[in-house]
Every structure is written in structure tokens, then in C-alpha cells.
Fold each of these.
Amino acid sequence: MSVPNVVVHRDADVLAKAVAARIITRLVDVQSAKGSASIVLTGGTVGIATLAAIAATPARDAVDWRRLDIWWGDERFLPSGDKERNETGARGALLDHVDVDPERVHVMRGPDAGMTAEESAESYAAELARAARPEDHGPVPSFDVTLLGMGPDAHVASLFPGMPALYDTRSVVAVHGAPKPPPTRLSLTLPAIQTSREVWVVAAGEEKSGAVRLALSDSGHVQVPASGARGRARTLFLLDRAAASKIPPELGRISSP
């Protein structure tokens, strides 16, 4: 796993725009090299603001949206179209405004699909396995970019401190009793996240600063899930100044554009 690099931006608004520009550049580079690309999306305030910033810039047209596979790191187990679903936020902010291939938008199904949370997790794991290629060496494709938000408790995706999902070696799990609503969710596990070529943890706000410090230290991933959010080739912590305020210099290479 790669050692995290830290990039700090002035505030949450600049952070969202900078991450948007970074995503566009990364996807264009990957598509130029391989023909297609893949990204794992996240929800949350900054995650959705980042997608909206992509939609708002003319540079979005540099991406061939038809040649992009779109996945989610986690989802709230709610019916399709529910405003609390990460998918709903992503569609409103970006996906409804670009020419994506519907067959390459890989949605985590809700209860309206006639599945339990466990069945939905198994279905998503099977979809990941179908997308994996021999060179991925496992049941999960090597995502080009995985975007993750982070909570003040250092959770990523729907992997909360101390919960059973952090011990799970499957690629996707159902999460019950989440400490923030709704209590039932679906989530990639850390082993699935760690298949990614690049993992970008995006966080803003002073309330995240303690979690950021722990995530960049040697804290164990069971109590600090974000400490296990690492990409194979590259890991970035993309932060605003408030979220970065408690990072000592020795905990990562820090640059401030």
C-alpha cells in the first residue's frame, strides 16, 4: 500500500473545485492510456459539491463519459430516488448532466429491488466480480480512482469504528446499526477499497481534524477505519486548512496550492 500524501486547500469551496479538476485530469489521462476508466464515488457535502463542480466546468467535456465505469463506495439502504441516497445526490449533481452509459453506472440496489441488505451486498459483489479482469488478481476491479469522504469519527464509506464490517474479507457487506442514520447501509470493505490504484480521502472542516491526524498515523483500522484507506499506487488526503490543522509535519508530505 502507498504512503499518503497530503494536499491542503484554503477552504471547502476551493477544495471541491480542486478535487473536481484533479478528477477530470486523472480520468482523461487514464482514458488516453487505456481507452476506459473507472471511478468510485462518495456522498457527503464535499463529495457532492465536487461532482457539482465537475458539472459546472467546461473541462468536463474532456472526459469520455461513455467510457467510464461508475461505482459507489457505499450506499444508504433506501429506495431508489430517495434524497438521502448517494446515488440520488450524484445524479442530481453530475450524472444527469453528462452522457454516461447507463450500463456502466453500477448502482447499489435498495429495498425497492425486492432484496434484503445482505442480498443487495451479494449482488453488488457479484457485479464487481464480473467486472474484474485476470490482471486484477481477485474479485474486484482495480479502480482507477476511489473517492472517500471521512467522518469526525474517522469512518470511511460505511465502515464505522469497531463494527464487524472492518473484520470482513468479502468485497461488499451489509451494515446494520450504523451510528448515523439510516442504520442500514451497504459498503465496500477495506480489502475492496485497497484494490484501487489511487485512493483519495477528501475532508473539510475543523471537526475532521482529529480524525485526519489519526488516519495519517499508525492507528489501527478497526478503531480508525480511514487509516486503512490506502491505494496500491497512490493515496491522497485532500483537505481544507481546517481539516489539516492538527497534522504534525512528520505525518505526511504536505503541499498547499
Note: The mean pLDDT is 96.
Amino acid sequence: MSEAHPPNRDQAELWNESAGHTWVEMQEMLDGMLAPLEAPLIEAGFPGEGGRVLDVGCGAGATALSMARRLGPAGLCLGVDISGPLVAAARARAAAEGLASAAFLQADAQTHGFEHDTFDAVISRFGVMFFDDPTAAFANIRSAARRGAKLSFMAWRSADENPFMTEAARAAAPLLPDLRVPPPDAPGPFAFADRERVQRILDASGWTDVDIRPIDAPSSVAEKDLLAYATRLGQVGQALRDADEPTRARTAEAVRPAFDAYVRDGAARFTAACWLVSARA
């Protein structure tokens, strides 16, 4: 990667501009949607009270804060994210709670110069699928982990197994000609859908005892939040960023009914199809 195009430049621009600010604004809804996947990850990655944990792609801090509470006052969970707006939100949440065992750093985990042999565990909830060079990223992350430290992360399985996440893009496609489906291995939510690819990346970056198992968790989005979910996040949200008001209105009319089949009892309910991946440094 040349200096003219540094690693993860596109992700840095995206998450420090529109996407980062949108996720901060929608933090409560997103935390609720992903909450069912928090406990399995924390349980898998917990190194014991007083441990030191690195949370990669920590976003607005939900998993880092949860881990910090579990570690207790003698421990530390350091959340790292490329997004300045999300890191600022995470710091504010930790400060409001008075949680000294949580800290946050704006950095690119693929290239950041972590202190070596520092962490007893590494965790991530949907934060590791966005690297330009995932092998280099996981090698760099491993350098920060102590020998024997456990890596635990959640990643989405395929788009076909997560139709709720792609309903909006399918419904909006006729109205948004610039909407593009990224290649399967491109940085993005489904970059780790291929189990064998995940295995190859971790093997090549020096992790051992790799275990990749499917997790299917019930999740939901409140019915009142569905339109915002469908039109402000992901591919549709990016495509609408600079759209005119008539295009926005037509797109909203098209995408909202696409979720009707999921709605019952005031919420859109779906299954989050993920991998829970573990390995050792």
C-alpha cells in the first residue's frame, strides 16, 4: 500500500465522516439490536478479573464497557476504533458511568504500534471485517497479545443467511443506480462469511487453535426505528447521503414495506447469523 493510498483510507474516511456520526446518533438502537450477541462474546473472551483486554473496532463502546465492568477496577479494557466520533462517544459513556477500567483510543488496529505482549485477551463484535489487509491486521493485533492470550470475535456469516440486513438494498436498488454489491472478500460486513477464508487469515497471521462455530441469535429492531435503520445505515444510507429529497422520499416508500414480514408485537424480529471465532496467540 503506497503512501498515496495508506491502509484502510476508505474506511477511515467513511467512519470519521457520515457513517461514524450516524452510528453515534443511532447508538441506542444499534446497541439494542446487537445486545443478544454481547454475552456470548464477553463469556468467550473474559480472561479473569483484573485482566487486560483489547477490543478491536469497539465502536461506541458497548462491548468494551461490558468487559470493563466484568474485569473490575483492577482490570482494563482498551477499545480501539478508526472512528473519531465513535471513540468520543465511547469515552463519554465511560466517563458518565465513572468506569475507570475502560479506556478508548482512536487508531487503525492494522497499523497501530501497540505495546507488545500487553493483553490477556482480544475481543471484537463485528469490528474486524473491514481491514484492507486482514492478515497484516491480525498479525499486528497478535503482537499486542501475550503468549497464550485468547482471541474471540463475532463476524457475520453470509448475506444469504442474513436477509434482514440486505432487505433495504434489494428494495432500493431500482431507485439507486449507484448502489453496488461489493465483491465477497471486500472489506465490509460480510467479508468473513467464508469460514475457510477466516481460517486461512488466522493461520497466516500466527494465531493457533482456531475454532469457528456458528451462532444464531434472535435480534430485533423496534418498529418505530425501522425506517431509520433502512435508510440511514449501510449501502442505502451511503447512497442517499447526497440524494435529493424526492429520491429520499421514493426510497423510503420502497424500502419500509420490505420489512413487513418481519414485524410482530411492535418490532421487526430476525435471526442474526454469525460466526463466533476463537484462537490463541
Note: The mean pLDDT is 95.
